[in-house]
Amino acid sequence: MKHRRLLVLAGVVGAIALVVSLSVAAASSNKPARVHKAAAIAAPKVPNAKAIKKKYGGQKITFVGDSVGDGHKRDLALAKRFSRDTGIKVSVVPHPAASDQSYAQLVRAFSQKSSSIDVAMIDVVWPGAFAPYLVNLKPKLGKQSKLHIKSIVQNDTIGGKLVAMPWFGDYGILYYRTDLLKKYNYKAPPKTWADLFKMARKIQTGEQKTNKNFYGFVFQGNAYEGLTCNTLEWIASAGGGTLIQGGKATIDNAKARTILDAMRVQIGKTTPRGVTSYQEDQTEHAFDDGNAAFARNWPYQYGIGATAGSKVKGKFNVTVLPHGATGKSVGTVGGWQLAVSKFSKHKPAAIEFVRYMTSPAVEKFDAITNSNVPTIVSVAKNKAVVKANPYLKPAIASVPRVTRPAKFLKTHYNEASKVIYQGINQILNGTPAKNVLPGMQSKLNQIIKQS
Amino acid sequence: MSTVATPAPAPRRRRRRTGLQRRQTRIGWLLLLPALAAVGFVAIYPLGKTVYESFTNQEFLQGLEPTKWVGLDNYRTLWHDTVFRDAAWLTIKFTLITVSFEFVLGLIIALVVNSNFKGRGPMRAVMLVPWAIPTVVAAKMWQWMLDDVFGVVNDLGMKLHILSHPYAWISDPATALGSVCAVDIWKTTPFVALLLLAGLQVIPRDLYEAASVDGASQLQQFWRITLPLLRPAIAVTLIFRTLDALRVFDVFSVFFGNRPDTQTMAIYAQSTIVGDGHVGYGAAISVAIFLIISVFVVIYMTFMRVTEE
Questions:
Q1: Which residue range(s) make up the domain with B146?
Q2: Lowest mean pLDDT segment, chosen from A291-295, A372-376, B148-152
Q3: How many Cα atoms within 13 Å fall on the side-chain side of residue B253?
Q4: pTM (2 decimals)?
Q5: Rounded mean pLDDT of B104-116?
């Protein structure tokens, strides 16, 4: 009767919960305020603003934007500048932090033909699903799209129509504490997952003597889209393929089983037990508060960790993710596009906003203040940008990228991803991979058949 | 919980109705019309639409393809859907655990605050505080308190030597259901207590006086007077709580998101419709939830004989 003992305990705790909850609230508001660099470089001005103002000034558009890290602040700053220069009012609404939930939000809006969204940021895996509901940007932004990385533009072109503009890229990277590696006599960051676990274990054992909240490794283990990205990296880097290949699910193979079981064993050992409910924000907090030796996250975390208020400023670096005994390091392709809804009542004004947001000046601003990966080749090579974002150095940026299997799934992508992240979450929570993977594989094949 | 009034008070057996009765009947129906229209609009129409959709293959992102009638296909799939079966069992387990704890604890609290003691007024108000916190806020708060690294529950438990090491109450499948039950019990017991307290207050005092004169002990008074007279209130409370618990969504959604092993029926329906875009199949799940809840209502109605009271 495990539950009953817990319930008795919880009853007692419940009685004092109020008092405690107030102190919890107080404590969490005491989190170190992070000083943001965003003030240092101002949002770039809008080119051709006068002409835009004359045509569309006074119109109002809604932009469903970022919510992870400092993304919302960046959106607000850019929207404010755009409104000031062009007279087009932009109201910025952050989307849900879990990307499968923001997918659901857009599905709802599009299926109701709602005009409440004019511009939306969409994940790199969604253009196929949303193409019928998005404006073809090619006539107006085709020229600007040539500045962007070709493969991403291709990804955003469905049936010859440019349904979205690349905004920023993403790939998974490993964050590590340089000071702790030195302290425990490691000369280089781990090359393989086995190395990572060994180093994480040793550093954790040492650090926990003074900081009992310290853990070796954190990542995104929650049952949501982020776990699909992490999973793809683990399996692909162990030589186990890319989940679905050639229109068939391949997730159930020996190499995948080995790496997933290796991960499962680490849960609660070199990671916090609660890592199976972590998303990006929890990962970033654990690492930037100095409570983790290694973290897997997207590049945006670099900027937050490198700001003045961060506890790990100057004490960390980034590198490629480890690989399995036989595989090679990879990074899951992430990234966000901007799209204009077909149901928008102010399409031309919305397109002007997208033009501004995906311009070289804004991408440079975003890369330097927010450490997001530019999708414009010339910006990614810009010296100031590379200096602020070491992950753009060729050694890291040239790591093979793996893409989530969206092209086999189209409108069924979200459903298939759910099968993946739910199954993997179950494994991480203690079920051996061999009991879960076969079921996942057959479910995925069923979904592929429908699409 | 509204009781439906009989529209025509005129007895049926009499063949010839007087003009007055006929007019009364007409006025009765007329007065009822706004209420019927409201019920039709907010309850019958959406329910009917859900039932209709459950026989179609409607999808959210269907593009230009028309929705087709698929007959019982969705229900056939549902019958073999182990995910739904797991979700249903989990929800029923959750319901049985929370409702029984809430009922027993709520009854005890109601009896205490119904007796005469100093500071009874403030006590009744304080008792309600957990119920007054919005569920999502309370769930977020508990999520923090139950955290394995920073949670105050682990911290206190370790300091008081109840726990040997910090637990990941929410992440660990062994304690996940327990913690979500605990939060629900913490939050809803005051509400149960309040409903039962209202029932206690309508029991006439002189019954207890008479019982004392006759030499009945406190315990006898409880079993013979309090409990029987409280039955209508208990029935309402249990039905209300059971229906609520079977539809639970918020705490689970905050605690577990889309985690597979802790899905309630409502979460499964929501993620099928909104996440996967399968409106037709999701509607079939919703109808199944409706039927399962109906079974519980029928059981209560039969055993508590609410209809007679």
A1: 90-262
A2: B148-152
A3: 16
A4: 0.83
A5: 93
Give A204's strand partners: none
DSSP H helix total and E strand total for chain A: 20, 14
Count helices and strands (H / E) in chain B. 15, 0
- Count CB neighbours of B123 within 10 A: 13
Q: How do the domains of chain A map onto residue ranges?
A: 40-170+335-397, 173-332+404-450
d(CA A373, CA A255): 31
Question: Which CATH superfamily does the domain covering A40-170+335-397 fall into?
Answer: Periplasmic binding protein-like II (3.40.190.10)
Q: Which of B59, B175, B258 sits opposite A422 (nearest CB)?
A: B258
To test the contact with chain A by mutation, choose from B53, B61, B165, B263 the residue with the greatest count of A C-beta atoms within 10 A, namely B61
Q: Residue for token digits 């508060």?
A: A289
CB neighbours of residue A185 within 10 Å:
7
Query: Would you say residue B249 lies in a domain?
Result: yes
**Residue found under tokens 């439906």:** B4
ipTM score for this prediction: 0.80
Question: Of A106, A95, A152, A158, which is closest to residue A127 (Cα–Cα)?
Answer: A158
Domain total in chain B: 1
The domains spanning A40-170+335-397 and A173-332+404-450 adopt the same CATH topology: yes
Q: Rounded to the nearest 5 degrees, what angle is found at the Cα of B177, between the Cα atoms of B175 and B179?
A: 65
B-chain residues near A113 (CB < 8 A): none
